[in-house]
Amino acid sequence: MVVDGKEAPPNPEQPSGPRTALRRAWTWVLLDGSRWWVTAALLALLFVVLGPVGHALLAVVEVETALAERHTVVPLVSTFLSGNFLLVSIVVSVSSLFVSQEQNTLPQQFGRVQSVVEYRRRLEDVAGLDHAPAAPERLLRVLSAEVLERAQQLQDELRAVDVDVRADVDAYVSSLSAETGEMNRELDGGATTFDVMLATMDYDHDRQINDLRGLRAEYGDALDERAEDRIDELLTLLQYFATAREYFKTVYMRQEFARLSRNLVVVSLPTIGLVSFALLHLNRLPQSHYLIVTVHVVALAPFTLLSVYVLRVSAVSSRTQAAGQFVAGRSGGDIRGPRED
Predict the structure, then answer these.
(1) Other C-beta atoms lying within 10 Å of the C-beta of residue 226
(2) What is the model's pTM?
(3) Are 275 and 82 in contact (CB under 8 A)?
(4) Nearest-CA neighbor of 235 among 115, 150, 128?
(5) Is 27 inside a domain boundary?
(6) Residue that is last in its domain, among 250, 283, 298
(7) Residues 260 and 236 in one domain
(8) Are the C-beta atoms of 144 and 187 separated by less than 8 Å?
(9) What is the reported pLDDT for 6?
(10) What are phi and psi of 326, to 5 degrees?
């Protein structure tokens, strides 16, 4: 049986080309970088484009004095000021939304706590654990280890069956082992919920569930009762893993939007003050190209900060999309490509 091969990881011994450097820079902007540092980098790039580069272009076309004309600067800065006030109102709306979600009645609060307790209790029963870890990274490590252990036990139990069955099961376990190892390496040193989300991005539980159900459907006659029970345990554990990751993603989204609201207020208030000062005293300020560019770049800081947060949230959301036992947004499986269930 043919395994649908995945793209091989880059060879660390090969020199990094421009495309690799651009990919790393984009990954840093999109996911890895601190939102403060990414915002600062983008604002610095914007200053260079509007400042030295813009100054050079204006000098070439001999319209340098046009930028310093106050009737051009005032409307633009006024627009930025209005936009920053609008952003502050958006922050208030977002914060109010999150606060309203936390304002539940006592039965609802008790139900939320009870559901988490019940989830952990059932997981302990299924996995045979005395105590399920509470820390997200430890819980996911335990879950993935239990899944891999059950898969390897299934592989050992099917040594005597048909060669086609063994080949497909071996391919499944090999893919599962690779994804588990990669996730555990990413989890090393992970201290935040976002680190957990980054580590689980390539752990494709939907595909694993789909392939496992496909194996059982195709080779059901060749499987004994113990193998069937092992597959049932695998499916259940994978469903628990999927539930945990979706829950942690919800927690991450709440934390991210809370940080966005706080940081937007921190950035917007001094920005509004600076832009207002520039408008009030524009007649007394020197007609400097770089001074005007600085005011414009500072005025764009709240928008830039909002953009980098939205980029990361959307990237995490799209790369951890889950469709239950359906496979959405990806092509091919780990075994023989896509299946028609």
Answers:
(1) 12
(2) 0.76
(3) no
(4) 150
(5) no
(6) 250
(7) no
(8) no
(9) 41
(10) -95, 155
Examine the domain organization and report whether 151 and 194 are in the same domain. Answer: yes
User: Which residues contact residue 231 at a Cβ distance below 8 angstroms, ignoring those fewer than 6 apart?
Assistant: 154, 212, 215, 216, 223
Q: Which helix (H) or strand (E) segment is 331 a member of?
A: none
149 with 233, same domain?
A: yes
Q: Look at residue 292 and tell me if it is in a domain.
A: yes
Nearest residue to 131 (alpha-carbon basis) of 143, 140, 121, 141: 121
Minimal CA–CA distance to 325: which of 268, 242, 246?
A: 242
Measure the CA–CA gap between 146 and 143, rounded to whole angstroms: 5
Q: What is the spatial distance between Cα 41 and Cα 47, in angstroms, rounded to a whole number?
A: 10
Same-domain pairing of 116 and 233: yes
How many residues does this entry show for the chain? 341
The domain containing residue 164 runs over which residues?
109-250
306 closest CA partner among 84, 97, 93: 84
Angle between helices 35-48 and 225-280 (to 10 degrees): 50
Q: Which amino acid is at 188?
A: D
Q: Which of 275, 273, 265 is nearest to 75 (CA)?
A: 275
Q: How far apart are CA 220 and CA 109, in angstroms?
A: 44
Query: Domain for residue 18, yes or no?
Result: no
User: Phi, psi at residue 131, to the nearest 5°?
Assistant: -155, 120
Query: CA 272, CA 264: separation in Å to the nearest integer?
Result: 12
Domains in the chain, number: 2
The alpha helices in 11-50, defined as continuous H runs, are: 18-27, 35-48
* Last residue in a domain, options 250, 271, 306: 250
Find the CATH number of the domain harbouring 199. Answer: 1.20.1440
Decide: 81 and 275 in contact? Cβ < 8 Å. yes
CB 190 within 8 A of CB 137: yes
Asked whether residue 123 is assigned to any structural domain, the reply reads yes
Mean pLDDT by runs of 10 across the 341 residues of the chain is 40 57 87 90 90 70 49 68 77 70 72 86 86 87 90 81 80 89 84 85 85 83 82 89 88 86 87 84 73 85 90 86 54 37 37
